[in-house]
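Hey,

Quick one before I head out. I ran the complex with protoporphyrin IX containing FE overnight. Inputs first:
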Amino acid sequence: MNHETEPPRYAEPDESNVRSLVEAFYRRVDDDPLLGPIFSRELTGRWDEHLAKMTTFWSSLVLGSKQYRGNVQEAHRPLGDIEPQHFARWLSLFLNTVEARYEPAAAVQFMEPALRIAQSLQLSKFGWDYPIPAEQQELLAALKRLRTGGEPQPDLPARSGGEPFPARFVGRGKPG
Ligand code: HEM
C-alpha cells in the first residue's frame, strides 16, 4: 500500500476537510467503472455545482451548519437505472474514503448518516420490502451502538392517544 500519498487523518471535521473529503470521494466515483458513467451522464457541466452542494450537505450533517436546502429523495428519483450493486459500490467508496481521512470518532459521524440515507434511498428505489444487505444493516447497527455508548436502546415511548400516526407527516388537511 502506498502511504506516501495518503493525507493525514483528521480528528475533527471542519469546513476545509469536508470540502476535501467531498472532492476525493467524487474523484473516486468519477473514476469508478460502475458509478462513473452515471455521474458523468447526470453531471456533465455541473460538477462544480454538485461538489459545492455536497460540501454544504455534509457540513450541515457533521458541522451543524444548517445551510443545505434540498430534497435528497427527489434528487435521486429521476435516476431510473440504479441497481443494488450501485449502492454497494457507492457505500464502499464512501466509507473507505472517510476511513482513510478521519480518525474513527470523526469517521462515524459521516458513516452513520450515509448508511441511513442510503437505506432510505434503497427502500424507495427498490420497494419497502427490499432486503437491505445484511452487512450494511450490521454496520449501521454497530455504528449506532458506538454512538449510544453500547447501551441497550430504550424502548420507544408508548404513544399518547389522540394523534393518528400519519398526521405529523401528511398534515391535518383543512379544518371542517
Ligand atoms: C447508487 C448510489 C447513488 C447514486 C448513483 C447517486 C447519484 C446522484 C446524482 C447523479 C446526483 C445529482 C442529481 C442532480 O443534481 O441532478 C446526486 C445528488 C445527491 N446525492 Fe446521490 N447518489 C447515490 C447515493 C447517495 C447516497 C447514499 C447519499 C447519502 C448521503 C446521496 C446524497 C446525495 C445528495 C445530498 C445529493 C444532492 C441532492 C440535491 O440536489 O439537493 N447520494 N446523487
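The radius of gyration is 19 Å.

Talk tomorrow,
K.
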